[in-house]
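cron nightly-structures :: item 1 of 1
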Amino acid sequence: MSDVLDLTCELIRRASVTPDDAGCQAAIAARLMRAGFRVRHLRFGEVDNLWATHGDGGATLAFLGHTDVVPTGPADAWRFDPFTPTVVDGVLYGRGAADMKGSVAAMVVALEAFVAAHPDHAGRVGLLLTSDEEGPTNLDGVRRVASGFRADHERIDWCVVGEPSSTARLGDLIRVGRRGSLSGTLTVRGVQGHVAYPDKAKNPIHAFAPALADLAAERWDEGNADFPPTSFQVSNLNAGTGATNVIPAALTALFNFRYSTASTADDLKARTEA
């Protein structure tokens, strides 16, 4: 377990805020090459992707993960520096400890141990990493790699994703598949004016408030045996001029659906617009 912890801490120290990999994949590649893995670095635009395999022929079992993390927000609001791994009472603190540098470290150590114990194993084992999982578009990460794999007839038969899904203890919940992610941007246009004369203005914040309440209260679906119900969350809400006495001219809301197989992207779009 100390090997996993040590590697997790090494990765947390690298401020790999999406899409910057900050050298995480290079460090992992060096380890896996020493263990006999073949490594391909696949960089598209600002995104780093890593494909490492061991073995020849037969079926392929791959681990899938990402080395990027979401922005930290104000660092002084953290109990500990987000990029200084800190263990307190048996708990590791640091940006990416759960999502998902801890998982990536466990994958790497597991692969090293497996090929050391079974150097002539059947089939192939592999690790696919991207630095574009937490980004807004996800265009140059796994999606781009998968397109290239199809063109090159590179096949993955089984894929294990190490995203955190446990509820009370490690391994108590394993999901089959992944939820969809649908992001949207809403702009509400009003008319700027002075707060003392609201009849001469149109406040986009007031106009949006009832719609926000309806969207937040909507039950999009009931989920199913494999996935929880679809969720709707506003992640950013911006309006205002910075002054306390001016009604703003526009409001912008960024929102996201994490949707189950009980819903489709087209259905969610139509219901949101309605």
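cron nightly-structures :: done
The two ends are 51 Å apart (CA to CA).
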